[in-house]
Amino acid sequence: GISVGPDGATHQALEDIAIVRVLPNMTLISPCDATQARLITEKAILNLKGPVYIRYGREAVPDFTDESQEIEIGKGELMRNGTDITIISTGHLTWEALEAASILEKENISARVINIHTIKPLDKDIIVKAACETGAIITAEEHQIFGGFGSAVAEVVVNHCPVPMEFIGICDSFGESGKPDELMEKYGLKASSIVNKAMGLLLRK
């Protein structure tokens, strides 16, 4: 993703989710922190048959999940409950989603946060439940918004419980060299951008 930083566009894989998720029989995983990355890699090695693509970030991010977490490949995780809007994230943008939810709470907006560590197969049930219960969804990914994680979520929503949506990600652009945090800010991947999108989305409910 963009957080590879100084290595620039040649090293910033911003299209891999879109490519891998259309390949038959692939399992596509994007853990949210170091602890989850280790646990889910071990589980994939021991339990999965067939090809598996695991998306690892390089930039240091908070390690906020617990060693005792129950990981089930193909199932999303409710990280925070909420009733007004749902932020569905993958990879290390889950931390930004949680930060955004805390900011929104100060504005009396109750945001649900769901971490999707398995993009394929996708947990449709947790997505549909969130759409029906909160009535608005934002997706967040460190990837192109076209064809990626947000598109996968939108395919589920439009078929089962259509609600207004917004998408956080790279918008039809190549990456560039820079400090990871500055690039995250420039490309609108920080918590503040999620908050701004949430405010606008709530007006469309």
Radius of gyration: 16 Å
Poorly predicted regions are: none
Q: Biggest sheet, strands in spatial order? A: 3-5-4-7-8
How would you describe the shape?
A: globular
Structure summary:
Helices cover 37% and strands 18% of the residues. With 205 residues, it is of the alpha/beta class.
What does this structure look like?
It is a single chain. The protein has 205 residues and is of the alpha/beta class. It has one domain: Rossmann fold. The protein contains seven helices and eight strands. The strands form two sheets. It has a five-stranded mixed sheet, with helices on both faces. A three-stranded mixed sheet has the order 2-1-6, covered by helices on one side. Strand 1, helix 2 and strand 2 form a beta-alpha-beta unit. Helix 3 crosses helix 7 and helix 4 packs across helix 5. 42% of the residues are buried. The mean pLDDT is 94.
List keywords for this structure.
five-stranded mixed beta sheet, three-stranded mixed beta sheet, 205 residues, 8 strands, Rossmann fold
Topology record:
Blueprint: H1 16-20, E1 27-29, H2 34-47, E2 52-54, E3 77-80, E4 85-89, H3 93-106, E5 111-115, E6 118-120, H4 124-134, E7 137-144, H5 149-160, E8 165-170, H6 180-186, H7 191-202
Parallel strand pairs: 1-2, 4-5, 4-7, 7-8
Antiparallel strand pairs: 1-6, 3-5
Helix pairs in contact: 3-7, 4-5
